[in-house]
Amino acid sequence: MHSPIIYIIEKGTEYVESLGGQLPDENQLFEETLLDCIEESDWLVANTIEYSSWHRNQWDESFEDMFKANSYYNFKVTEKGIMELSILHHNLINWDKRLLELHEEYNELLKNNLKENKFTSAFPYRDIKNYFEYKDMVEKESGGIKFVLYQDYAGELEFYGVFNTRDLVEHAKRTFEFKNTNTIEFQICTNVVGDYHF
Q1: Which helix (H) or strand (E) holds 46?
Q2: Which among 84, 91, 88, 102 is positioned nearest to 21, based on CA atoms?
Q3: What average pLDDT does this structure show over 26-54?
Q4: Closest CA to 4 of 149, 195, 167
Q5: Is residue 104 scored above 90 in pLDDT?
Q6: Above 60 in pLDDT, residue 196?
Q7: Opening angle at CA 40, ends 35 and 46, nearest 5
Q8: How far apart are CA 156 and CA 6, in angstroms?
Q9: Beta strand pairing status for 156-163 and 43-45?
Q10: How confident is the model at residue 141 (pLDDT cuts 50, 70, 90)?
């Protein structure tokens, strides 16, 4: 299966604002670096925009739909046409509520099985979709969007890491706690997008 690699830059400085959603060429990563970070991938292309025949070689409505379908972050296009993601307090509450729902479903099934002196199978959910959602929320996500995060350090753009949705939510939680804020925003780099196979 294929999933996208989205490059994002954490906002908060004039330098990042000046980039306008464009990742400088010197900051683009090599495939080898990404393969080291995306453990479940057997191969990937760091920037598919360079390939006109690639199915993920342009920014279109499918990306916007993908971002809008997620309740753990918000998507918008600014007046200048820059795509941005943000995570707000209510997004983190949505995350925690869903995680609690999945825990409760898991616990309920365990209790019912124990009452009947039955062990619980390796897929402890009635719906396999919930099982994979739970695993994605508490363990390493297999597949799904990978976010390549950059931050500004003293006027220079630095590669911070490759995150799945869970990692991005945890990064937001840490940022909220340590910086005493309730919003974290990212520019989406529209001059680069990758694709990985898992």
Answers
A1: none
A2: 84
A3: 86
A4: 195
A5: yes
A6: yes
A7: 35
A8: 20
A9: unpaired
A10: low
Q: How many residues does the chain have?
A: 198
Q: Which of 94, 91, 65 is nearest to 184 (CA)?
A: 91
| CA pseudo-torsion sign 175, 72, 143, 148 | negative
| Host H or E run for residue 5 | strand 2-10
Q: What is the mean pLDDT of residues 153-157?
A: 92
- Taking only the tens place, the pLDDT of each residue in 51-102 is 776 655 566 667 788 888 889 999 999 999 999 999 999 999 999 999 999 9
- From CA 134, how far away is CA 166, in angstroms rounded? 11
Helices (H), the chain: 14-19, 31-37, 61-68, 89-115, 128-138, 165-179
More confident residue, 102 or 144: 102
Angle at 91 between CA 88 and CA 93, to 5 degrees: 115
